[in-house]
Write the structure tokens for this entry.
Amino acid sequence: MKRAKITIVGAGNVGATTAHWCAAAELGDVVLLDIPQTEDMPKGKALDLMQASPIVGFDSNIVGTTDYADTKDSDVVVITAGIPRKPGMSRDDLLATNAKIVTAVTEQIKATSPNASIIVVSNPLDAMVQQAQKVSGFPANRVMGQAGVLDTARYRTFIAMELGVSVEDVSAMLMGGHGDTMVPMPSCTSVGGIPVTRLMDESRLEEIVDRARKGGAEIVGLLKTGSAYYAPAAATAQMVEAIVRDKKRLIPCAAYCDKEYGVGGYYVGVPVILGSNGVEKVVELDLTEQEKTDFQKSVDAVKGLVEAMDKLLAS
Ligand SMILES: NC(=O)c1ccc[n+]([C@@H]2O[C@H](COP(=O)([O-])OP(=O)(O)OC[C@H]3O[C@@H](n4cnc5c(N)ncnc54)[C@H](O)[C@@H]3O)[C@@H](O)[C@H]2O)c1
Ligand SMILES: O=C(O)C[C@H](O)C(=O)O
């Protein structure tokens, strides 16, 4: 059986670290692509990573390039191309620059890897996925965004830190856009099977939810020169794994929702089953009244951003 071919567009912090996690888990052969102006940088990172293989013990071929010909017929393409935010910026401030980058990248992917699944990581996430699907024309189930795995991981980490338990025992779900309106769901959060609401009081949980919501900004404030990449890359590699190993993971992703949750044709974070056919199912839950209100607020924010992007690209 042939190895999966995984292309990562954008060999910066998130892209190169995603390549690292994918190679270390032997998910397939990896092509790391960046713009020609970066000259040999992707080649250097790829060669460096290859030289870790005898130590870590993985058999993945890793190619660094600026030529889309090397990405031909990829099974999965991850888009991390674009600028990250700096302190004082919101993800939405990246819209104008990254919409053009994601458009250009997707046109190339459409031409070179027509059967690929696309995982978008560039921000502002939900609008960028919408654009990648529109430009590629790929079936909506084969285009998705990474945000929920990361946001849930932050939420799970903070709960484990608070309770002094293993992160492995914390299970959680989170919905909505990748922004300040994201909706962590205490009703779907448990620790060793015990509802989290039985282990900590409501006000402490609300503080943790708020920290998870602002988790990206917290890292930006500490790094100062860019945004988070270790956890975002690990989250992206988990999605790649779900596809190339047909894992049928039930995880939160930015997925296309039309009738689902009454969203009406937008990408937004929802629980999905992720396997070799991409988003194989959007899992619909009965939301509480509060969750419905919060989710709708988040969907409205995503819609506003997509409209702003369409206007920008048309002007
Ligand atoms: N969805 C998430 O959870 C999440 C998490 C972290 C970062 N991000 C986003 O991911 C993006 C990348 O972040 P980063 O920290 O890796 O930034 P970075 O600056 O380290 O890397 C971005 C790379 O993209 C490359 N690039 C720019 N235009 C390109 C093009 N047209 N084709 C190919 N490559 C191109 C740049 O040369 C650079 O190497 C940002 O938009 C950031 O906001 C999203
Ligand atoms: O916060 C950012 O700008 C990057 C990313 O979306 C994150 O949540 O870490």
About this structure: The radius of gyration is 19 Å. The first strand starts at residue 5 and ends at 9. The CA atoms of residues 20 and 49 lie 7 Å apart.
